[in-house]
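> forwarded from #structure-qc
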């Protein structure tokens, strides 16, 4: 018995449409930076974890994380998958471990790491918090929905 509401062919088509870059949240973060006159580059291919946004002059990188896929401690991120649960729980755990390792390597290399969580982007003061994090002095910042 399967709990999937789609046929295997339809599920495959749905999963093919899941984007890996230029997602809505990434575009929103870039729009905020551009509006504030903050320069950046995309796709830090030479850096651990391939950050979504790189500000080389500031030695700052931004990762834009989806709460579910990266296992955030918010209601959406804490939601347990029903179909193929063992696979997805292990996958999300690996994502979390990889994210932490990449962040650690970047921090030790002298980069500031800003992690933007998808849920935090709904807050009315998100743009202000993002700009403060980018312009601030802390080594690692996580912009989360939690106060």
């Amino acid at each position: 018995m399967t709990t999937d509401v789609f046929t295997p062919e339809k599920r495959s088509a749905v999963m093919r449409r899941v984007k890996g870059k230029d997602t809505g949240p990434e575009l929103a973060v870039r729009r905020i930076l551009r509006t504030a006159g903050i320069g950046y580059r995309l796709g830090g291919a030479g850096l651990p974890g391939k950050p979504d946004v790189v500000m080389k002059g500031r030695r700052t990188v931004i990762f834009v994380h989806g709460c579910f896929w990266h296992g955030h401690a918010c209601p959406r991120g804490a939601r347990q998958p029903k179909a193929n649960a063992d696979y997805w729980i292990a996958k999300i755990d690996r994502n979390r471990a990889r994210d932490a390792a990449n962040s650690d390597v970047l921090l030790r290399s002298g980069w500031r790491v800003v992690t933007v969580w998808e849920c935090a982007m709904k807050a009315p003061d998100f743009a202000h918090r993002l700009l403060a994090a980018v312009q601030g002095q802390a080594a690692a910042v996580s912009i989360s929905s939690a106060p």
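QC bot note: The chain has five helices and five strands. Residues 85-108 form the longest helix (24 residues).
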